[in-house]
Design goal:
Length: 211
């Protein structure tokens, strides 16, 4: 069931410790987009392999720790496995956006050390999963959406718990932590759309404190 049939303009609580902030990133989007384009030109997103197979999204990273996958497993690395170089620092505009969004959701002093960039196209999806590879679960997760719309699935502590369906638009931010920090979540298959900024793609930034 879609609990949020209309796009909202005010913060929406979606679970204990979890908040949807519609349009929260729009005010910094020009600077954010410029930084993101520069990053992806130097560190192009790659489709990662996992033990479950090739991911349908392409990924890149920023920060002290980047998320990477292989047929043997997945987790955080301090360097880009393609170039062998350390991941670049998270730009100030993204760090400040993450801190502000976390504070809006009730989490003060959030300083992420990892920013995962996922790029979706029509048909791409992300199965229900927990973010549990980090060492500090006291810190929230901040997720920023750019480009074409997506249905974000936010479930519960068990994989088979019912999932809320959240219609994310360009500039929306979702923050979760506390009781919901390890709740299952995912992204339904992306539809075919166009956006003036990103074309036929959805780009998602997921900011975490990994170590």
């Amino acid at each position: 069931m879609d609990l949020f049939p209309e796009h909202r303009t005010k913060p929406v609580a979606i679970a204990a410790g979890a908040c949807w902030l519609p349009g929260f990133a729009l005010s910094v989007m020009p600077t954010l987009w410029q930084s993101l384009q520069q990053h992806l030109a130097a560190h192009p997103a790659q489709q990662m392999m996992t033990p479950m197979g090739l991911m349908s999204v392409a990924t890149s990273s920023m920060g002290h720790w980047g998320w990477v996958g292989s047929s043997q497993g997945y987790g955080y690395l301090a360097y880009d496995p393609v170039t062998g170089q350390p991941w670049p620092a998270i730009p100030p505009v993204i760090l400040q956006l993450a801190a502000n969004a976390a504070a809006q959701a009730g989490y003060s002093d959030f300083v992420p050390d990892s920013c995962l960039i996922n790029i979706y196209q029509a048909g791409s999806k992300m199965g229900l999963h927990q973010d549990k590879d980090e060492q500090d679960f006291s810190q929230p997760i901040v997720s920023v959406s750019l480009g074409i719309p997506a249905t974000f699935l936010f479930g519960g502590a068990k994989r088979n718990d019912a999932s809320a369906k959240i219609p994310l638009q360009h500039g929306d931010v979702v923050v979760w932590g506390g009781e919901s920090r390890r709740f299952y979540h995912g992204v339904a298959a992306i539809g075919a759309h166009q956006h003036p900024l990103t074309g036929n793609k959805r780009i998602n930034l997921t900011l975490r404190k990994a170590k």
